[in-house]
Amino acid sequence: MMRPAFRFSRTPPPRLPPPLGGLLTAHVLGDYVLQPSWMAARKSSRWSIAALHGAVYAAAHLAVTRDPAALLLIGASHMVLDRLRAAERLARIRDRCGPDHLLPSPERDRDARPANGAADGKPWPTAVIDNTAHLLCNAAAVRLCRPGTP
Fold first, then answer.
1. Are 26 and 59 in contact (CB under 8 A)?
2. Is the pTM value of this prediction over 0.85?
3. Where are the domains of the chain?
4. How does pLDDT run along the chain (150 residues), one tens digit per residue?
5. What gap in Å lies between CA 31 and CA 46, rounded to an integer?
């Protein structure tokens, strides 16, 4: 009797993190749709409001994961990033370390940009940094808290 050239393994294949679409949808829901304007205005000045926003944000991720540790990491990292205005700090570091910093002073003053790095004064680069940081933290939390992942 011939044996098959391959064997079916009894161990399940390794799980991949949830699709980026699920994390992105949960992020948009938690950070934009479910966040009232009063919360957005005060979350960077009071820890209690930042914690409330972190809890609402984590609840929006229930469709992505039900792991309590992952949800705790998602909510806590979001709370800290927003309360400490990490994206604005990173934008300032980027502006100080970029090629504009190497220009002579008169040229740098002439071509000065606002602190958020946008040429037209709109804060989209800071928003890009903020959203990227949150999505990276969320993906890491979900990946790290999965049982059986290295």
1. no
2. no
3. 20-144
4. 566 665 666 666 655 555 678 999 999 999 999 999 999 999 999 999 999 999 999 999 998 999 999 999 999 999 999 999 999 988 888 777 766 555 555 444 444 545 444 554 545 688 899 999 999 999 999 989 875 443
5. 17
